[in-house]
Design brief:
Blueprint (H helix, E strand, L loop, with lengths): L3 E5 L3 H12 L3 E5 L23 E4 L5 H12 L2 H8 L1 E2 L4 E4 L1 H13 L4 E4 L6 H4 L5 E3 L7 H11 L4 E7 L2 E3 L9 E2 L14 E5 L1 H13 L12 H4 L4 H7 L25 E7 L6 E4 L8 H8 L10 E3 L2 E8 L1 H4 L12 E3 L9 H19 L12 H11 L27 H19 L1
Parallel strand pairs: 1-2, 1-7, 2-6, 7-16
Antiparallel strand pairs: 3-5, 4-5, 8-15, 9-13, 9-14, 10-11, 11-12, 12-13
The chain binds flavin-adenine dinucleotide (FAD).
The site of flavin-adenine dinucleotide has 34 residues, from helix 1 and helix 12.
Length: 440
């Protein structure tokens, strides 16, 4: 009997998954609802449409996203191959001619003998399981009927409709001499607190608030305006409400005794551990729509963060995703209904490339399952492995989408000077990726 898989959504993840399955001899029914039904962001009927920027970000391997590109190229990714073929000059980044890119992905899939295109909106993924395994890759703007089905399947508290993201900081880039550890009121003299606190005096706080108010922000799109009512308030909206609003909100210093002064600071910025490895901290309550350049400048005025490496900037936008560590099995199938697999942004990755990488993993994993083989996951020391580890084993209590970044990688075991750590991680990643790739 022919092996058959249904894929819903021909975006970055669905297109990649379809290509990998089809190339492994599996018949793919690829469902795409455009152009009959559109999302609020897509403009064309092409597959793998880039809804905003035309950039896949840095190509330098010493950036985690550059390394992910290197790995995907070696694995035979469709998205990377077409991106390389349609690239436009963009310095150290990989940017593409968006029309040519999406057209080429569409053409390759439409002419593949194992891919069968269905231009229709899928209202129920469960109904499709009668034909075989299903991969849902409908992205951050999944159509309402399907989102509702997923909400029912995963329970409402495991499905989110908005991102409300605070910036993430690489722990080793925090100046520990300027900050102190404490948890509000609850730390005995012998314990160290769970939070890293960046203390501010009144002058520093006033300057910070003024800079936030004056900063340039990203205007929400019409379909995103409800976020402020649904989610938490961005720091700039609080700052605009009055000079003391942040001080009585997320920047409250009350109850946080600075061991160096024995007093509570005028204001603080609190950082909370973000992953089990302790390599990443998030800025508590600091969701923001300030432009990235403004965040880079203003956040580095906070004591202790002068040289902070910002792994992810704050953001607030419409984004439907599930709490993957709670609802997904290791092969990205739903725990409640293992015939349905999730791929792409909806699993808690962020970005075009990461979504394609997720599609690659799920496509090849489902193909392996159909062939009766065990699926292989790359080691945590590689970019793909680190990204997938975030999806499946990220912090379930506060699960948020992330771009691939060095903070997600397994820390080095040997003692390497700070200035050489990324090079050492890169070398380790390449060695272990090669070993993995030879095995699979
Ligand atoms: C407004 C906006 C701007 C963004 N800007 C950027 C950016 O600049 N850079 C970046 O890296 N990332 C950006 N992202 C994130 C981006 O969406 C993802 O990186 C990427 O497109 C997600 O890939 P995906 O395959 O998971 O989903 P998508 O690429 O969105 O693909 C999902 C596909 O599923 C289809 N679909 C949905 N529901 C159904 C249904 N019921 N039946 C059939 N088909 C369906 C959709 O039409 C779509 O083609 C942005 C996201 C949004 C919402």
């Amino acid at each position: 009997m022919t092996k058959r898989v249904s894929i819903v959504g021909a975006g970055l993840a669905g297109s990649e998954a379809a290509w990998q399955l089809a190339n492994r001899g599996v018949a793919v029914d690829l469902y795409e609802m455009r152009p009959a039904t559109n999302t609020p962001a897509h403009r064309t009927e092409n597959f793998a449409e880039l809804v905003c920027s035309n950039s896949f970000r840095s190509s330098e391997p010493v950036s985690a996203v550059g390394l992910l590109k290197e790995e995907l190229r070696k694995l035979g990714s469709l998205i990377l191959d077409v991106a390389d073929a349609t690239a436009v000059p963009a310095g150290k980044a990989l940017a593409v001619d968006r029309e040519l890119f999406a057209q080429e992905v569409t053409d390759r899939l439409c002419t593949h003998p194992n891919v069968f295109i269905h231009r229709e909106e899928v209202l129920s993924a469960t109904a499709l399981t009668k034909n075989g395994p299903v991969i849902l890759a409908t992205g951050p703007l999944t159509s309402p009927a399907l989102a509702e089905e997923l909400r029912t399947l995963t329970h409402s508290d495991s499905l989110y409709f908005y991102d409300s993201l605070a910036p993430l900081i690489l722990t080793e880039s925090i100046d520990m001499d300027k900050v102190f550890r404490a948890g509000r009121y609850d730390v005995s003299e012998t314990e160290v607190g769970d939070y890293i606190n960046c203390p501010m005096d009144q002058e520093q706080y006033d300057a910070f608030v003024a800079a936030v108010v004056a900063s340039e922000k990203i205007e929400p799109k019409d379909f995103e305006k409800a976020i402020y009512f649904e989610g938490c308030m961005p720091i700039e909206v609080m700052a605009e409400r009055g000079p003391l609003t942040l001080r009585f909100g997320p920047m409250k210093g009350k109850g946080l005794t600075d061991p160096r002064t024995g007093r509570w600071p005028y204001a603080v910025v609190q950082l909370r551990q973000d992953n089990r490895m302790g390599t990443v901290y998030n800025m508590v309550g600091f969701q923001t729509r300030m432009k990235w350049g403004e965040q880079a400048k203003i956040l580095r005025t906070i004591p202790g963060l002068e040289n902070a490496e910002i792994l992810r900037y704050g953001a607030m936008h419409r984004n439907m995703y599930v709490n993957s560590p709670t609802v997904l099995n290791e092969d990205h199938s739903l725990k409640v209904l293992p015939d349905i697999h999730l791929a792409g942004q909806m699993t808690g990755v962020e970005g075009y490339l990461e979504s394609a990488a997720s599609g690659f993993f799920v496509g090849t994993t489902v193909a392996a399952k159909l062939a009766g083989k065990a699926a292989q996951r790359p080691p945590l020391t590689t970019a793909l492995g680190a990204m997938l580890n975030h999806v499946l084993h990220g912090n379930a209590k506060q699960f948020e989408p992330q771009n691939v970044n060095w903070g997600l990688f397994l820390p080095l075991t040997e003692d390497v000077p700070k200035s050489q750590r990324k090079e050492a991680m890169l070398e380790r990643a390449r060695t272990e990726f090669q070993r993995f790739n030879q095995k699979t």
